[in-house]
Model the fold of this input.
Amino acid sequence: MSNNNILEVKDLNVHFRTDEGLVRALNGVSFEVERGQSVGIVGESGCGKSVTSTSVMRLLPGVGEIANGTIKYYDKDNNSHNIIDLEADGEQMRSIRGPEMSMIFQEPMTAFSPVHTIGNQIMEKLLYHENINKDKARLKTLELLKKVGISKPEQRIDEYPFQYSGGMRQRAMIAMGLACEPQLLIADEPTTALDVTIQAQVLKLIKEMQADYNLSLILITHDLGVIAHMVDYVNVMYLGRVVEAGPVEVIFDNPAHPYTQDLLKSIPKMTGNKGKLASIEGSVPDAYSLPEGCPFHTRCRKKIGDVCESSFPRTQEISKDHYVNCFLHQDLGDK
Amino acid sequence: MSKYIIHRLLFMIVTLIVISVISFVIIQLPPGDYLTSYITQLRSMGTEVSQEQIDYLRQQYGLDKPIYVQYFKWMGNFLQGDMGFSFAWNRPVNELVWERLGLTLIISISSLLFTWIVAFPIGIYTALRQHSFSDYFFTFLSFIGVATPNFLLALVLMYVSFKYFGINVGGLFSPQYAEAAWSLAKVKDLLSHLWIPVVVVGTAGTAGLVRIMRANLLDELGKPYVTTAKSKGIPNYKVILKYPVRIALNPFISTLGWQLPKLISGSTITAVVLSLPTTGPLLLDALKSQDMYLAGSFIMLLSVLTVVGTFISDILLALVDPRIRYI
Amino acid sequence: MNNKNDDTYENEIYAASQKELIWMRFKKHKLAMAAGIILILMYTLAIFAPFFSPHDPYQRSVSYKQAPPQELHFQDKEGNFSLQPIVYPYNKEIDMETFKDIYMEDKSNPTSVKLFVEGYEYELFGLFKSDIHLFGTGNKNVPIHIFGTDDLGRDLFARIIHGARISLSIGLIGVAVSLFLGILIGGIGGYFGGKIDLFIQRVIELVRSIPQLPLWMGLSAALPSNWSAIQIYLAITIILSLMSWTSLARVVRGRFLSLREEEFVIAARLMGRNPLEIIFIHMLPSFLSHIIASLTLAIPGMILGETALSFLGIGLQAPVISWGVLLQKAQNLYTIANAPWMMLPGLFVIITVLAFNFLGDGIRDAADPYSK
Done:
């Protein structure tokens, strides 16, 4: 009963079978989300952020498969489901995907079908999961559109995505996510494709909705600035692994992993704007041939030695709720 | 929407005018005018033609006027339903074309339906089962279908049905119905003969459409909106039918515009091989015997059919695709 | 200075040129490679047709009218296998009930097939004379008809490969003409954009909405009957390309629209180059591979068009030999039931068209792996 988690991901491994070979997209990802908590997942592109979220939703593309691990989800009645055991397109999974957890996508233009009205696409979800008629579903959709701040919803509901502006489409996307009142909202780079001014509005809206609906939130982004304002807890990912996790203020004030430290240095600051903006040396290694040992050792400035190249460091709790996988913080004697 | 329709309507009229000019040019192309050849023909058969008669005919067809006057005269008559006179048949063109045009239309439309009914499910199936054995099988078949000339397919079908089933598949009617008036029995007889030309004419189009449908659907299946729809917890088959299939259908409608000209082209040559009583053989005869009024009218009418068909497909496309509707 | 050094360094790393990359990707496309080889074979057969044909394609033979293909036996009379094949000449008998000719192998007269034998004399490209043929019996009394003969006893194999000269070249010339029209018209539309583009698009649409075959028929039937074979040939080619430049023009237009905004084109414009120069010198090379792919895919339409017109008897006429002219003989059920080998030219049409399709697909995929 002490468990207040809504989602527990443990040791998740996901592979992609491609013509060029096996891609290990996730190599033992673990994290938890408490009820009402907002959790951020950050990392460079290609680190497996989106694979993590699509695995939780069981929406991996055909070539992707979950090799092992568990994803435990606690529903509205606090029954636990291991999502990995469910059939991706089965009835049970579909009663979770949508009504229990929903997702906001990056590209609001392409994430809506161009030939169906916005109203049609939101109502579809309500009509499928709730036992209501079309008029009722339309009323609910109007309410949702109003809630996310779309003016003249009576007119907008019958319009097509190409008649909406980018920001409005993302608002409509949020409205669709909120339909059926899910508990968990996964936002995958929700503002990346938007103008900076619109970004702030959309993020503010997500925050408001989170409070109104008492949502748990997983925010996936490469933008540490967004993370700082939006979440309580941060998971930093690198090449399919979580390398550091901790409360947001701890991560920003006292980053322990060299990768996190470099990431933070590469944020442009408003003050002290002197010299070159720091960047991380080198580029992300090829996903087809992951380096042995700690995956970051090829770019790490603080590499200790051979040990970094031969084995992956254990998870070490270095302060309350602050975990890191790095030999710098590990007593090498017990290795 | 109405602006779009007016646009397309204007375009259709311009196209028709251009086509009428081309048809008229074809009528005019053979050396000398057809009256001269008609008179030669009559004289060779021993009929005496007086100078007055010749002058009368010349005047009637405006042959003594400049070429553009002749064109307008021809066009004016055409619009009133008078398509000129077939010197080879010694009958007005009107009497010759309508029934044949009707049968051509029946074959073309049936072929179109056949094309869609076959291509649509196969296209979806092969896209969903990409890289499976059946995918390769149908892809291979459709390549062969595209590469085989219509008339060759007709020949092969004729050969096979003669050799192995002992039936002669030519024609559209059994002999006892060919000259009979239209009745239910005649329609039945027509249907039992219709399938061969429909298969022959439709095959190339079917093969092409299977490839288009497959490629489009594969494109659409990877689009983000499919994932969005799945994220709503809707079953996969519903998602696929409502979204990607629906969008992949648009090209079917937009290709209607050039499917029709192809089908009518295809039916022309198939009709010659299978000796169908449609426009094809008559057009060929007319061209060979330089019966130019008949030939020109045929080309004009066939083109009108396709242009009108294209116009209809444009409107259909606007109905299904809001992106066009709201321009 | 420093920058320049960097540049050469970069160039050394990316040594594989665009052409090499395309070739590398193309080689992976097995089907397209096979198609390419088949086409090379076809064109070789066509170019050196007299050398490859054991008989003069016009030489008639009364005792071999509509004779079926002769079998090549790899066994001699005693049943021993031999690598050198043997043919038997035919004895003709007449079935007294149907009055059809029946051809029986004359087993008493086995003749081995030899390579590089002397036969009828021919001229290649009007340059040199020869009487050496790739294969034959070397015996005037024993013909070798591996594809049978037509109703006048002419060797079908010789006629097919001689017909390939016309059928295969008409596609190339026709495509060249429509390429010129397509690039010119499509290029102008795509380069200038705006109203000119709109007008050209309408023209393209207009041409596409006219049913091709009836128009082809009308135009080619109107060709003066006193024209020489070569004039008719050229006229037919032009008629075919008049209708088929549109798809090329569309490809070119689309590419031009996107290239128009590229810096190197803007630079050329600012330097005061005239539009035609920019189109042909600057823009065209940057999507040559696309053009080649579309060209390859346009050739089959031409070949099918010629075949169809000649088949109907309003295209090329005998004594010219083309696949369509050959297929004219196979027009009625009676012929194809009694002499199905008369449909063999059709098989060549299908193989050629398929090969061009596969080749074109292969080139397109290799030229632009992302455009699938």
Observations:
- The mean pLDDT of chain C is 77.
- The first strand of chain C starts at residue 73 and ends at 75.
